[in-house]
Amino acid sequence: MEVTNRYVAIRHRIEGAPTEADFEVKEQTTRWSPDSGERIVSYAVGEVVASASPEYAAGDMVAGVLGWEDYTLFKPSPTAHMSKVDASAGFPLSYHIGVLGTSGMTAYGGLFEVCKPVKGEKVFVSAAAGSIGSLVGQFAKLAGCYVVGCAGTKAKVDLLKDKLGFDDAFNYKEEPDLKSALKRYFPNGIDIYFDNVGGEMLEAALANMNIYGRVAVCGVISEYTGAGRPAVPDMLGVIYKRITIRGIYAWDFMPKRFAEFYGVISDWIRQGKVQVIEDVSDGLENVPAAFVELFTGQNVGKKLVKLA
To answer: Residues in domain Enoyl reductase (ER) (predicted)?
Structure first.
């Protein structure tokens, strides 16, 4: 099948924070995807338009690792991250790469398998208005916990408290001393910290953790571009408080807990117990801008780009 395929490529090595100028949209008429050296991939949902595999047929909807392009050549294998989407479930396709995909699986697995919340415990979530943080906070509330989140704008703080049900939230940009800020919001200490930020926020959270506190490290957005200094945690405090710190990755929990996760979260969505926040752009040419927004804090909830 010969097609004219548009795809997003990197112009040059990116130093520091990415900008739209670091990317370009190219076009290629071919039977295959772009050269592997140019191909950028992420988790996406798409429709099978042609197949030589007995596992997939034209018209199937699939979710998995696809390219930033109109067409992706996919070769099934035991290690490939791809699965069929149950369109009959009645959810928007976007949910299968967000709340019912990697974002939701990371939030669910990180909170319930790593942190193991107990009713009444105190939970802090950083980057709480993002695709994962917004779900972690809601899941923790459903587990009976007291939940505080932080975000970078007043609008996001209001969203956390007014729509997503967080007990409290604050704008970290307005807090010159993060350790003192967390002491105010958690006078009796933090039991669980879901970290999406790293850096000084992680240091401040650890300083306020209770004995046997648990930390799920999901991301370090403050360090990705080299702008912020790496976290320097007080390791003596970690030892004395017997704090557990564990890095997490969505694929740690897939496929062994996916069926459980999908069933539970699907029910919560249908019952109105979980609110889904999406931030959608349109068109392949807007993929670079959408990607850049992840580093500037402009996105709210799951950032998506609709290609067709």
So the answer is: 16-305
- What's residue 32's pLDDT? 66
Helix (H) or strand (E) holding 105: helix 102-108
Q: Which of 159, 140, 171 is nearest to 277 (CA)?
A: 159
Domain limits at 126? 102-251
**At how many degrees (to 10) do helices 199-207 and 178-185 cross?**
50
Q: Specify whether 233 is located in the same domain as 106.
A: yes
User: The domain that contains 34 carries what CATH number?
Assistant: 3.90.180.10
In 283-299, which positions are buried (b, 16+ CB within 10 angstroms) versus exposed (e)? ebebbbebbbeebebeb
Break the chain down into helix, strand, coil percent, rounded to 5. Answer: 30, 25, 40
Instruction: Name the residue among 119, 101, 97, 121 with its Cα closest to residue 109.
Output: 101
Using DSSP, state whether 111 is helix, strand or coil.
Answer: helix
Q: Does the predicted model carry a pTM greater than 0.90?
A: yes
76/184 same-domain check: no
Strand order of the sheet with strand 168-171?
A: 168-171, 146-151, 122-125, 190-195, 209-217, 244-247
Are residues 142 and 18 part of one domain?
A: no
The total domain count for the chain is 2
Are 154 and 233 part of one and the same domain?
yes
The per-residue pLDDT for range 60-117, each reduced to its tens digit, is 999 999 999 999 988 888 777 888 998 888 999 999 999 999 999 999 999 999 999 9
Contacts of 98 (CB under 8 A, 6+ apart): 104, 131, 276, 278, 301, 302, 304
The answer to whether 287 and 8 are in contact (CB under 8 A) is yes
Residue 181, domain CATH: 3.40.50.720
- Does 291 fall in a domain? no
* 221 in any annotated domain: yes
Reference 109, options 307, 260, 226; nearest CA is 260
